[in-house]
Amino acid sequence: MTTHIYLVRHGHHALLGRVLCGRMPGVQLDELGCQQMEATAQFIRNIAPQTIQSSPQRRALQSAGIIATRCGLPVEIVPAFDEIEMGRWTGAAFSDLAGQRAWRRWNSNRGRSRPPGGESMRALQSRVVGHIEQFRGDPGQSAVIVSHAEPIRAALMHYLGVPLDRFGSVDVAPASVSCISLDRSQTLVALVNGVKA
C-alpha cells in the first residue's frame, strides 16, 4: 500500500516578497492568506487525511489550523519541518540583501553555502527527508505537513533528483499543495505546486 504525504505551504502574509522572515516571530496570515487556505483546506478535506502536521511558525500553524478545522483533526507540531534558519539575515528586506556578496553566493551556490549564522540547505534537506522517510513504514496513510517554501522545495528536490544549486527550478507558491507518494521500495512525486487558490 502507498502512503501519500501532502506538503502544503502556508498562505500569504503581508511581508511576503519584501522581507526575509525566516523564523522571525509573530508573522501571521493576512486576509488573502486565510482565503487561500480555506480553498486549500477544501481540497485537503476531500483527501481525508489521517494526520495533520505543522511547522512551529505562527503562519504555518494558522494555515494548519484552517485545514484541521475542515478535517476534524488535531495539529501536531513537527520541528523537522520548521522554516530554514536564516541567521543574521532574519528580518532583512530583500532590497537590502540584494547588494551583498554573501547573499549572491547563497543564491548561486545553495549546495555548498549557508546564511551567516544560519542553516545550510543541505542540513535543511536532511531533516525534512528524514521526517518523510519515517512514513515509509506506515503504509496506506495520508498525511498533511504544512510548512514553508524552502523546506518543501528541499524535500521535492531530493525526491526529484534536482541538485540544490538549481533551487529556483522548483516553485512552491503560497497555499500550494505538493504530494510525495511512498511505498516500501519506491517514491513518486505525484504533484508539485498545485491547487493554488
Task: Give descriptors for this structure.
8 strands, 197 residues, 6-stranded mixed sheet, 19% strand, single chain
Task: Report on the architecture of this protein.
This protein has about 200 residues and is an alpha/beta fold. The protein has a single domain, classed as Phosphoglycerate mutase-like (Rossmann fold, 3-Layer(aba) Sandwich), CATH 3.40.50. About 35% of the residues lie in helices and about 20% in strands. The protein is built from six helices and eight strands. It has helices spanning about 30-45, 60-70, 95, 100-110, 120-135, 150-160, and strands at about 5-10, 20, 50-55, 75, 90-95, 140-145, 175-180, 185-195. The strands form two sheets. It has a six-stranded mixed β-sheet with strand order 4-3-6-1-7-8, with helices on both faces. A hairpin with a 4-residue loop joins strand 7 and strand 8. Helix 1 packs across helix 2 and helix 5 crosses helix 6. It is globular. The relative contact order is 0.23. The model has no long low-confidence stretch (mean pLDDT about 95).
CATH class category name: Alpha Beta
Gross CATH architecture: 3-Layer(aba) Sandwich
Q: Tell me the number of strands.
A: 8
CATH topological fold name: Rossmann fold
Distance separating the two termini: 31 Å
The fourth-level CATH homologous superfamily is: Phosphoglycerate mutase-like
Mean pLDDT: 95
User: Nearest-angstrom radius of gyration?
Assistant: 16 Å
Side by side, the strands of the main sheet go: 4-3-6-1-7-8
Order of helices and strands: EEHEHEEHHHEHEE
- What's the overall geometry? globular
The helix fraction, in percent, is: 25-40%
Secondary structure category? alpha/beta
**Low-pLDDT runs:** none
Described by strand count, sense and barrel closure, the largest sheet is:
6 strands, mixed
The percentage of residues in β strands lies in: 15-25%
